[in-house]
């Protein structure tokens, strides 16, 4: 893969020019963005791959759901349906996509969970609902500039910041680094839990935020238990299990488990992997399976796996959560 990306380097200027031109047309108003008179918060990134958008959306849901009618609107990556879909009791990972289905399973009636590749149409459909939402969270929509969000939250990982990356196809950036200027808030995700003030300052010098941008540092922590739909087990009591991952970067999870001196085999699939009949046949031979919450949403439909299928939850911690929460709530109420 690295060889192919290096070979593709001559195409980088072409991708850069096209994506820059597109942004310029939106900046000049030649291409139109639709604004709305109620709070819309966009959570996204400049790069492909896992920067922690799903945990951030869940953080915002938890922050706002008790005071506002909240909706999430996602593209619904790799779903089997088309157009606008609103989650209900008959929904599945196939009809919504794994991450929106995770939102629905976790929050049920607390939020509207919807998907539509056309975010403008998705917003219009949400507004037609009885008891329509007061706040909409756009999931992975930083490049979807047909909608002008009132607040843009940009995520970048501590290990692979956008300032050290290149645009596709050689790098992982969907657009040039200059796109970060559209962000109101930048959250550096997946930081070491022990990150120091000096390390934060060094990172800030790398990304050089504008004076109007707020930067926060966040880390993830893993639960001490694995859970299924009906049971819970202490992670320290597990022996010789199978870890199944279909996420962008499984390394932090693997390291967490190894640091606990747990014995396990790791079946590592690509992000948003669609499990085949052959995959399920292999998993049926395993005695105990631990997976991520996102992968659990795709696997729990298989009755042959239910008794042995568990997932490990994560919690997001933001370094100055008081300030972060205040910024979000101030925007929503303004």
From TrEMBL:
<dbReference type="InterPro" id="IPR003758">
    <property type="entry name" value="LpxK"/>
</dbReference>
<dbReference type="InterPro" id="IPR027417">
    <property type="entry name" value="P-loop_NTPase"/>
</dbReference>
<keyword id="KW-0443">Lipid metabolism</keyword>
<comment type="similarity">
    <text>Belongs to the LpxK family.</text>
</comment>
<comment type="function">
    <text>Transfers the gamma-phosphate of ATP to the 4'-position of a tetraacyldisaccharide 1-phosphate intermediate (termed DS-1-P) to form tetraacyldisaccharide 1,4'-bis-phosphate (lipid IVA).</text>
</comment>
<protein>
    <recommendedName>
        <fullName>Tetraacyldisaccharide 4'-kinase</fullName>
        <ecNumber>2.7.1.130</ecNumber>
    </recommendedName>
</protein>
<keyword id="KW-0067">ATP-binding</keyword>
<keyword id="KW-0547">Nucleotide-binding</keyword>
<keyword id="KW-0441">Lipid A biosynthesis</keyword>
<comment type="pathway">
    <text>Glycolipid biosynthesis; lipid IV(A) biosynthesis; lipid IV(A) from (3R)-3-hydroxytetradecanoyl-[acyl-carrier-protein] and UDP-N-acetyl-alpha-D-glucosamine: step 6/6.</text>
</comment>
<dbReference type="GO" id="GO:0009029">
    <property type="term" value="F:lipid-A 4'-kinase activity"/>
</dbReference>
<feature type="binding site">
    <location>
        <begin position="47"/>
        <end position="54"/>
    </location>
    <ligand>
        <name>ATP</name>
    </ligand>
</feature>
<keyword id="KW-0808">Transferase</keyword>
<dbReference type="Pfam" id="PF02606">
    <property type="entry name" value="LpxK"/>
</dbReference>
<keyword id="KW-0418">Kinase</keyword>
<keyword id="KW-0444">Lipid biosynthesis</keyword>
